[in-house]
Amino acid sequence: xxxxxxxxxxxxxxxxxxxxxxxxxxxxxxxxxxxxxxxxxxxxxxxxxxxxxxxxxxxxxxxxxxxxxxxxxxxxxxxxxxxxxxxxxxxxxxxxxxxxxxxxxxxxxxxxxxxxxxxxxxxxx
Length: 125
Prior knowledge:
Shape: globular
Mean pLDDT: 87
Number of helices: 5
Distance between the termini: 27 Å
Low-confidence stretches: 116-125
Number of strands: 5
CATH topology: Rossmann fold
Helix content: 40-55%
Strand order of the largest sheet: 2-1-3-4-5
Order of helices and strands: EHEHEHEHEH
C-alpha cells in the first residue's frame, strides 16, 4: 500500500490515524472534508480512502459514483460510530464501501484491504 487518504472532520482523529499510517511505512494524505479529499485525489494517487461517515453529505449512491469517477478502483472504507444503526452500515456496504467501527487502527485497515477489496466490488451506476 502506497498512500492512504484520511477524510475526517476531527483533527485529532485525522492526525492520529495519519501518524499510525506513517509508523507502518504507509504514506498518508489528510483532508477535513470530502471536498478537500476530492482535491487530494485529483493530485495524488492513493491506495485506500478512509472517510468518516459524518463527513458524507450526499446519498451513498452519489458518493459511490463520486469516488469511482475521481479514484477508479480505489477501495473506500467508511468509519462509523459503534452505535451506528444497522441500516446505515448495510446501506454503505450495498454501495460497495467497507464499513469499520471507530476508533480505527492501521492494522484493521491493512487487514480489511488485504482480505479483499475485490470481494466487495464497488457498484457502478
